[in-house]
Amino acid sequence: MTIQRIDVTGGSGVEHRVLRDLAAMEDVADAWRALDARAADPLTYFQSFDWCHRWIATYGGPHCRPEIHTLWQGGRLVAVWPLMLSGGRLKRLEPLSTPHCQYANMLVDPALGQPLARRLIADLAGAGFDLALIEGVPEGSALAALFGNTAPLAARRNTASMLDLTAFASPDSYLQRLSKTQRRNRNRRRNALARHGELSFEVLFPGDKGFEEAIALFLRHKRHWLRETARRGHAIASADFDRFLGALPGDRDALSGACFFLLKAGDRMAAGELGFLHHGHYYAYLGAFDWELRDASPGKTQMDMTVCWLIGEGVKTYDLLGHPTDYKESWSNRTTVLETYALPANLAGKAYIDLWTVRLRPGLQKLYRSLPHQLRRLAQFGQSFGLFLMIA
Which of 29, 314, 342, 381 is the S-S candidate for 353 at Cβ 3.0 to 4.6 Å? Predict the structure, then answer.
């Protein structure tokens, strides 16, 4: 078990500990979960013990080491900032589970003052990195407050699209607020899909019969769509991603953790959505549909049913996550800004931020996403030369 202990404020009884392996994480699992419950922050699922522990168990190694910064006061865990040290010659300190996590954040006990929490940044110097690159920090979050007056990178600003479900008293009230055109299109899609079999909708949690099989088929549909549209999907490229998702826990009674929304046409999976529930917040993490049914827009029908289920269960937010698109805008009624913060530790780290993170990478991303899918296929062929390996 590897834990670094750093004295923070002498007589105040606050200690900074850095957890650097699975054993150290497991040793504080109960305290970590208790802090999560006290903080009750809806935007911290990707900082939860279950997510972080299972990700490191799947992807951790010599080139991807946990660097989890924690604060303890009077023997009680009061802050957790999950980071990891990755890279080869150039060492990067990044949010733990990059590129799979969507929001960078930290768990903070409501009773802990920000001046003490800010000491976490001051103590990063001993982590042995060339740069810290923290992407996807939600505005107004505990982590955003930690950075204080540090200016974010304007070139890396992102936006998350969300549907505030508290605006709807019931699923019926949600449906009644649809315009005539929206209702007509909704019925048209359902009728077209029903020609392939009677429609059915169910919500599966880990441990439910058919959950693992549904996830496996769902990911095959997703990868098929990526191939057909020549999109990269590098975060789900490896078989380990299937194993990682299958290990995530979820609880139907507590409305927490992983869950899967399944729409069938007859016995056929028409569309599915894997997401996470956390303190009344739902993350729409990954969606997929049967490519052969694409003309009937099964994904939209599944999303419609998912929103109604969430409203019925009292969930407050349907979160479509970052990288705004037209379809996300059509489903959302509010947005949250996501910032990127960069802290170079030396000249090599500063050069990486100035040249790659701020200039080259955004330009290459914009160019790649603007290409017709035929040219994206050609660009993907060039991946063997490393040109597009890091732009998405």
Answer: 342
Orientation of helix 211-229 relative to helix 240-247, angle to 10°: 140
Asked if 249 contacts 29 with a C-beta cutoff of 8 angstroms, the reply is no
Give residue for tokens 């959505």. 273
If you search the block for the tokens 């910032």, which residue do you land on? 339
Q: What is the pTM (predicted TM-score) of this model? A: 0.88
168 domain-assigned: yes
Residue 324 has a pLDDT of 87
Domain containing 42 equals 3-150
Instruction: Give per-residue burial for 131-148: e unless 16+ CB within 10 Å, then b.
Output: bbbbbbbbeebbbbebbe
| 242 found inside a domain | yes
Do 146 and 273 fall within a single domain?
no
Distances in Å between the Cα of 15 and the Cα atoms of 21, 38, 51, 74, 75 are 19, 19, 25, 9, 9
Q: Which helix (H) or strand (E) holds 95?
A: strand 92-95
- Mark which of 89, 120, 150 sits at the end of a domain: 150
Q: End of a domain among 336, 352, 387?
A: 336
Per-residue pLDDT of 108-135, as tens digits, reads: 999 887 777 777 776 776 567 888 899 9
Model pLDDT for residues 239-253, shown as the tens digit of each residue: 799 999 999 999 999
Do 174 and 304 fall into the same domain? yes
Taking residues 338-364, report their average pLDDT.
Answer: 75
Residue 390 lies in a domain: no
Evaluate whether 338 touches 136 at the Cβ level (below 8 Å). Answer: yes
At 390 the pLDDT is: 41
> 264 and 135 share a domain?
no
